[in-house]
Design goal:
The chain is α/β, with parallel strands linked by helices. The protein is 39% helix and 18% strand. The chain folds into two domains: 177 residues, Glycogen Phosphorylase B (Rossmann fold, 3-Layer(aba) Sandwich); 141 residues, 3-Layer(aba) Sandwich (Rossmann fold). A seven-stranded parallel sheet has the order 3-2-1-4-5-6-7, sandwiched between helices. Strands 11-10-9-12-13-14 form a six-stranded parallel sheet, sandwiched between helices. β12, α10 and β13 form a beta-alpha-beta unit.
Length: 341
Amino acid sequence: MRICLAASGGGHLRQLLDLKPVWSTHDAFFVTEPTALGESLAREHRTHFVSHVALGQAKLGRPWLMLQSAWRNLVESRRVMRSERPDVIISTGAGAVFAAILWGKLYGAKVIVIESFARFDHPSVFMRIASRVADCSIIQSSRLQGFFPRALLFDPLRITHDPRPPKERLLFATVGATLPFDRLIESVAELKRTGVIPERVIAQVGIGGVRPDNLECLETMSFDEIQATLKDADIVVSHGGTGSLITALRERCRTVVMPRLFELGEHYDNHQLEISEAFEKRGLVRTARDKDELKQALAVARETEPAGATTDPRALMDWLMEKLAEWSKSDARSPKRRLAL
């Protein structure tokens, strides 16, 4: 069975990687954005890149950029789907892969959409639209059941209690794979300059991001490099992406979140604030909206036993394997209809 794994960069793509036991035994390929994580993925798996596009581009005052990107994405996605002709598409969103889902559906693929783990209280625009064309819809928060009463619920978050490994006197600041986040990096640099942060600091600043002289700055890092850094880091200051947060919590780092804010033009909506507050309610992270709150959050984090958490997708993987086996038997009994577009 040929499976298309479709996700935009960052946490969306990492969720698909967590499902590797499901797709690794099939003829699988990826459709994603050309991020650092995507580039490293392409070295091991068949990967097609499509242009970044999101409705939030219009919200931030760039509607023509959104339309131009959407047109390029539409053409690129059609080319990929016409060439690959997948039997099944599994997608965790978001906007960059919506066209691929539509083209794949037109070419006869069955579609499974999985709402981002980042969405605790309100569904994404992607899920609201994509669930209407999907054969199966999956949510990862019980609070979304009211929005999608027919969706299947698999909540993967698990608290861990393993002993904390030895850590270095190191703070790792990360802005994620997709966008720079200069306010976070400049806040860390200022606190380092004034002595509030005595630790050595490694900062992943994003492509084109600010590079303060008093920090060890890297624009991008491979996933393996990030994991190696997190094993050593005592403290992590992160944007509000679920992929970054879960990766830090798996390594029992003292984790402080500075979410990108829509009102400051840093993101397409405030879902990163929603994520950080949900994680904070569970006692997993500290949230800081500005430099002063970051200073306070770091002080509290240093005096608190760091929590551990991970995602356990085994129940979801079991269901996916059963569904793929069911569809494989069904396809073997009946010829496929493919549009010759």
